[in-house]
Amino acid sequence: MTYHPSCSDCFYYDITQGEQTPTVGAEAEAVFDASCDAQILQHALKDDLDKDAIINVLTKRTNHQRLKIAAEFKKLCGKDLISELKKKLSGDFKKLMVALVKRPADFLAKELHHAVGGIGTDEKTLVEIICTATNFQLDCIKAAYEKKYGKTLAEDVADDTSGSFRRLLVSLLCACRPECECVNEEDVCQDVSDLIAAGLGSKSDEKSIFNKILCTRSYDHLRRVFQQYRHVAQCSLEEAIEEEFSGDLKIGMLAIVYSVGHKSAFFAERLHDAISRIGTNDRKLIRIVVSRCEVDMFDIKQEYKKCYHKSLEEDVAEDTSGHYRKALLSLIGDC
Fold this sequence. Notes:
This protein is mainly alpha-helical. It contains 20 helices and no strands. It is elongated, with a radius of gyration of 21 Å.
């Protein structure tokens, strides 16, 4: 089946991972009625604003269903649902509700444009999105980005980054990582040998070898490489990267390594970073909750509890308030 780049029905499917558990799933056809939900939102967005009703609809539906609701809302009211949400709501609650109604590729394209636009670059957002996305997701995001901003994502990323970090991101944006391929053990052994040699030998070749292997091998192949590397080198590849690299390049490489086997742990760390500092990073919090609730938010919650000895729900509740908090907790799966 060929999917249009804006199709949300398949965007969140992650072929690179094993079984994952979302906190927002498709409602049974018997209970999902886009026309009925559109009517609820029409009444909720009137002068006597009913924020609870808005939350009950938008946080309990998948993105694919929300887009159907938005289409029905336009037929019913002659108005754009996103425009009405922007007009009637405010603050972070507004941002969260609007994000839920956007197509995933459009939403993440905007986040990437924000990361490379203006003064300074948000390298961690570039890493978070680009280094963890599937080929299909990257192709969708690139198409949405070019349509919206008139330049390719690769051009803007290349203009706003430099050196080996730029090469890492541009390599990933080619979206040419093999998927669902059989693993050749001879190739695994060769990659392990090359990685160990790069770590011990010429610094001039080191970055390009790590870049080539991390960006162009399938996840199944990399899992075997990481296993063999630990056996041969007597340390993990994460430890080697920590030792050999620094700065944004190290962060990017580690994100790829975590994406191979511990993607939920990577996003748990990102969420903790968003809510553990003085002043919540609401943009990051909204982005991760919206983009992972249909993929692996239940798994992320488990990793969060294991790493930080406190539930994600507790930390989000302590760091947010009002209907914004209620909507986040609904998406995270606390209510």
